Task: inverse folding
């Protein structure tokens, strides 16, 4: 997978080492998009945790830029919300004032997403028009823009699942929404790293064990983050408030017997999803620790060792935050910190993969 991605992205790099002034502009833009993706993901977590995401029942890309103007418009908007399962089953006593509170949370979420879309599209258009990014090398940049737009569509597709017959969004659409954000982040960050200087790919026969392990770590981390999305979508974080025991057991009986066939429980039963997510984190930690050990033992360049060490530290912090979220019944600050750390960890693993697969040759020289 890395080799095929590299063949596509390598075409975006200049023929000389170091970044020119135009390259620096592209790099700043790419890194800005990375920050926007991470920020929107965290804000999306805030929207979900405050139950604000289902407050706007329509997806008006243009007219939705403005909130309701005047009392009559607010009453009409509130009346639409009153027809939703969330109002009828959860917020039946909510007043218009209370509705305005959750409306504005989702409104600003969508407004920031629109602004982020402009920050993605407008600079890209200027770069293409001026030739800063040649059209023949524009594929990866256009893909970033398309994926960013698709991410916005998935956001509405997710919200729409909570407006029909239940007061919550589909956990699978939520996971797809988050995984698409990770894809945008990974592609954008990888492209930015490529733009920072010429990289020489390590020949397949010379790829080291740490490089392969870093790729495995990335795959395992994506699975763990996807399970985090399922935990959120199923509201499985409230299933148990004890750790390491769950319902008084280290491994509660019957976790695979709630639904049939048995494997459905791995993605559909709250308690099972919660159990997998809490312990799969230690698989991530084990891989990260082994990777750090190997980079030091094989005397990889110091920057590689530092990123590997940072990853181990972030995983430990992430596990600590996850346990705290369980113990303290999913408080807002801890839950958002847990999500933010996951995004930082994902970005660090992308950087490490770039270092191991592209940034350094087998002798350790850059």
Result:
């Amino acid at each position: 997978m890395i080799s095929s991605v590299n063949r596509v992205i390598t075409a975006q790099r200049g023929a000389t080492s170091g970044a020119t002034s135009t390259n620096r502009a592209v790099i700043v833009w790419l890194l800005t998009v990375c920050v926007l993706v991470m920020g929107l993901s965290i804000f999306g977590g805030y929207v979900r945790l405050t139950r604000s995401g289902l407050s706007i029942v329509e997806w008006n890309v243009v007219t939705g830029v403005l909130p309701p103007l005047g009392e009559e418009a607010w009453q009409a908007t509130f009346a639409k919300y009153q027809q939703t399962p969330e109002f009828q089953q959860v917020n039946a006593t909510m007043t218009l004032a209370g509705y305005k509170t959750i409306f504005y949370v989702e409104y600003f979420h969508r407004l920031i997403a629109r602004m982020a879309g402009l920050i993605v599209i407008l600079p890209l258009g200027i770069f293409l028009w001026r030739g800063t990014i040649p059209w023949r090398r524009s594929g990866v940049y256009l893909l970033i823009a398309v994926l960013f737009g698709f991410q916005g569509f998935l956001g509405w597709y997710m919200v729409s699942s909570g407006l029909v017959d239940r007061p919550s969004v589909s956990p699978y659409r939520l996971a797809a929404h988050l995984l698409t954000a990770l894809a945008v982040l990974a592609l954008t960050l990888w492209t930015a790293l490529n733009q920072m200087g010429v990289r020489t790919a390590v020949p397949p026969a010379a790829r080291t064990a740490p490089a392969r392990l870093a790729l495995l770590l990335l795959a395992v981390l994506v699975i763990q983050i996807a399970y985090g999305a399922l935990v959120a979508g199923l509201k499985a974080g409230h299933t148990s408030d004890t750790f390491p025991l769950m319902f008084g057991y280290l491994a509660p009986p019957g976790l695979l017997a709630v639904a049939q066939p048995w494997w459905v429980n791995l993605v559909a039963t709250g308690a099972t999803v919660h159990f997998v997510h809490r312990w799969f984190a230690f698989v991530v930690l084990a891989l990260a620790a082994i990777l750090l050990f190997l980079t030091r033992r094989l005397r990889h360049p110091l920057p590689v060792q530092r990123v590997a060490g940072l990853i181990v530290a972030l995983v430990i912090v992430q596990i600590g935050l996850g346990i705290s979220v369980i113990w303290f019944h999913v408080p807002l600050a801890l839950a958002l910190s847990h999500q933010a750390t996951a995004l930082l960890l994902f970005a660090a693993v992308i950087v490490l993969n770039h270092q191991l697969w592209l940034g350094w040759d087998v002798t350790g020289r850059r």
Q: What stands out?
A: The longest helix spans residues 96-130.
